[in-house]
Amino acid sequence: MAEEKRHHHFRKEEEIPVDGGVAYSSTAYSTDDRGNYDETTQVVAAITDDDDYKDEEKRRKHLEHLSELGAAAASIYAVHEKHEVNEDPDNARRHKIEEELAVTMATGAGGFALHEHEEKKEAKEDEEEAYGKHHHHLF
């Protein structure tokens, strides 16, 4: 039988503070069948404070839109189940329960959309406070 070669790999990712933001590095450690050790480190991404705000704003906006879509879908499903109560009297109780669940889900998704909207506004205010708001006076 041929000798089995074993290679051990280990990867570590960490944040490194730099001026004006954070850099993310990736370090890979490996050994070969002879026990030779190798370490490779590379900077994967560097994010400045300005990028951090824009990324947070983008993420919050995305979550806000997704939750609005979820609220709309749950509302439509609630209306559908309300209609099914009248169309299928044999299973009216089940349709009524599903309607109530859909209404609850729509309410929760709407609340989450409002929460994300408020968080997005708060992040924008924090950014303006940190970097100064530019007022354009026309008069």
What would your notes on this structure say?
There is one protein chain. This protein is of the alpha+beta class. It has two helices and three strands, in the order E-E-E-H-H. The chain has helices spanning 49-87, 92-131; strands spanning 8-18, 21-31, 37-48. Strands 1-2-3 form a three-stranded antiparallel beta sheet. The chain is flat and about 75 Å long. The chain starts with 7 loop residues before the first strand and ends in an 8-residue tail after the last helix. The mean pLDDT is 77.
Which tags fit this structure?
single chain, alpha+beta, three-stranded antiparallel β-sheet, 139 residues, 57% helix
Topology:
Layout: E1 8-18, E2 21-31, E3 37-48, H1 49-87, H2 92-131
Antiparallel strand pairs: 1-2, 2-3
Helix pairs in contact: 1-2
Provide a concise account of the structure shown.
With 139 residues, the protein is α+β, with helices and mostly antiparallel strands. Helices cover 57% and strands 24% of the residues.
- Radius of gyration using CA atoms only: 27 Å
The major pleated sheet works out as: 3 strands, antiparallel
Strand order of the largest sheet: 1-2-3
Helix content: 55-70%
Average pLDDT score: 77
The string of secondary-structure elements, in order, is EEEHH
